[in-house]
Request: fold
Amino acid sequence: MAAKPGSNPDFGALRELFKPHIESFDHMIDTGLDTMLRHIKPVEIFDSFTSTKLRDILFYYIFQFFCSFLFHLIF
Reply:
C-alpha cells in the first residue's frame, strides 16, 4: 500500500524484518572478518617442477576475494 504524499509511513515492521540481516552483516564486518582471517592456517605447497615452496596461497586468494568484495560493496 502506497503512502499518501506528505505523510510519514511507519516502517517499524519493515525495520524488524531486516534487523537480523543488518545485525549479522555488522557483526561480520566488525569482528567476523578479523576472526576468520586470524584462524586461517598457512598452506605450503611444494612445486616439484620448479623446486620451490609456495606459502600462504589460501590466504592470498581469500585476501583477493575480500578486496574485490569490499570494492564492489563501496562502489
Summary: The longest strand covers residues 44-47.
